[in-house]
Design a protein that fits this description.
By secondary structure, this protein is an alpha+beta fold. It has two domains: about 80 residues; about 60 residues, OB fold (Dihydrolipoamide Acetyltransferase, E2P) (Beta Barrel). It has a five-stranded antiparallel β-sheet, with no helix packed on it. Strands 1-7 form a two-stranded antiparallel ribbon. The longest helix has about 35 residues.
């Protein structure tokens, strides 16, 4: 005769814990990516766009431009522009240059994904707490 509290309860707790951790990590990544687009760190540098080409990534297409900084350094950035124009660009934490977006719509779009993921993380945390309580309060079953 063995006393078992139920392996299904423990597996549920582990599942909700993993989902919660993944959601919290995704919030951090989405916040970093969103804020980099609207409020990048560092000072803006003037980039003179020299050439642009349209690249395809699956179903999506984007414009990749090459340009020169004031000191002559060649940089590459995503910008729907034309050769010959100058734009302000900031170096992102991962090294590439981005053209910051301005306005309320850009801020709303940048914060929408992290907010949705934060709500998902909160829901997973609530489900995790319920699963832990359910497992803790479950009576031990007797097996022969």
């Amino acid at each position: 005769m063995t006393m078992v509290s139920g392996a299904g309860g423990r597996a549920t707790v582990v599942l909700w814990a993993v989902l919660t951790a993944l959601c919290v990590g995704a919030v951090g990544v989405a916040l970093l990516l969103g804020l980099t687009q609207v409020a990048p760190w560092g000072t803006a540098e003037r980039v003179a766009v020299s050439e642009c080409e349209t690249r395809h990534a699956g179903r999506n297409a984007y414009v990749q431009c090459d340009g020169l900084l004031a000191d002559g350094t060649r940089v590459s950035l995503r910008h729907a522009g034309r050769p010959g124009e100058s734009v302000d660009a900031v170096q992102a934490p991962w090294g590439s240059y981005v053209v910051p977006r301005r306005g309320l719509a850009a801020w709303s779009a940048a914060l929408a994904a992290p907010a949705a993921l934060l709500l998902a993380a909160a829901a997973c945390t609530v489900a995790l707490r319920r699963a832990v309580r359910r497992t803790r309060n479950r009576p031990m079953a007797l097996r022969w």
